[in-house]
Design a protein that fits this description.
This protein has helices at residues 24-29, 46-49, 83-89, 92-99, 110-120, 128-136, 177-190, and strands at 9-12, 33-37, 55-59, 73-77, 105-107, 143-146, 193-195. The chain is an alpha/beta fold. It has a single domain (9-195), classed as sialyltransferase cstii, chain A (Alpha-Beta Complex), CATH 3.90.1480. Helix 2 links the parallel strand 2 and strand 3.
Length: 196
């Protein structure tokens, strides 16, 4: 990591590639704002992924476990490409406010979903990480990322660094990693997303 960080923010994905980088945890924890996703795990993986979590980004599904926090902020992805699914996800807000009183909750605007879907011709909603990047880039000039390659491999490839049973499977049913890669590659080329 250079002396001057390219961003105040690092988004830590959940890809298994994080386990190949000894010492990355210290680099991650040195950022002023560390954002983690959904069911992230730090215990036992600190050398690779760090231990600090400032903001928690999550989707609206029941598969995301309750987290004790405390967090400085929560970023909530609601399934926003259609009004009906967006409204259904809003039921989670009162629960989060109860579980994390006083914590600001940013909801990713529906416009971010629709803009990405229109620009990149997604059939399905982009991954939470992709949406969080798009959301943050409205406020910040650039963000750093690591562990964002969790849909690379075969259907039998393990998807998350912390989950032995969670394989990629046929993600083309739900996500389109090729289109997400095009979007991220463009942002990296522009210098707005910086892999660490």
């Amino acid at each position: 990591m250079p002396d001057a960080m390219p961003s105040r923010i690092v988004l830590v994905g959940n890809a298994r590639s994080l386990l190949t980088r000894d010492g990355l945890g210290n680099t991650i924890d040195a950022f002023p704002i560390v954002i983690r996703f959904n069911n992230f795990v730090t215990a036992g993986y600190e050398g690779h992924v760090g231990s600090k979590t400032d903001w928690w980004a999550r989707n609206e599904t029941d598969e995301v476990e309750r987290r004790p926090g405390p967090f400085e902020k929560i970023i909530l992805r609601l399934q926003g490409e259609q009004e009906a699914t967006y409204s259904a996800g809003e039921a989670l807000l009162p629960q989060l406010r109860l579980q994390h009183p006083g914590t600001p909750i940013d909801i990713i605007p529906r416009r971010i979903f629709t803009d990405l879907i229109e620009a990149y011709h997604f059939r399905n909603a982009p991954l939470t990480g992709t949406l969080v990047i798009a959301h943050l880039l409205r406020e910040y000039e650039r963000v750093c990322i690591c562990g964002f390659d969790n849909l690379v491999g075969t259907p039998e490839t393990l998807r998350h660094y912390y989950s032995e049973g969670n394989v990629i499977g046929d993600w083309t049913t739900f996500h389109e990693p090729d289109k997400e890669a095009v979007y991220l590659t463009e942002l990296i080329r522009q210098g707005r997303v910086v892999p660490i």
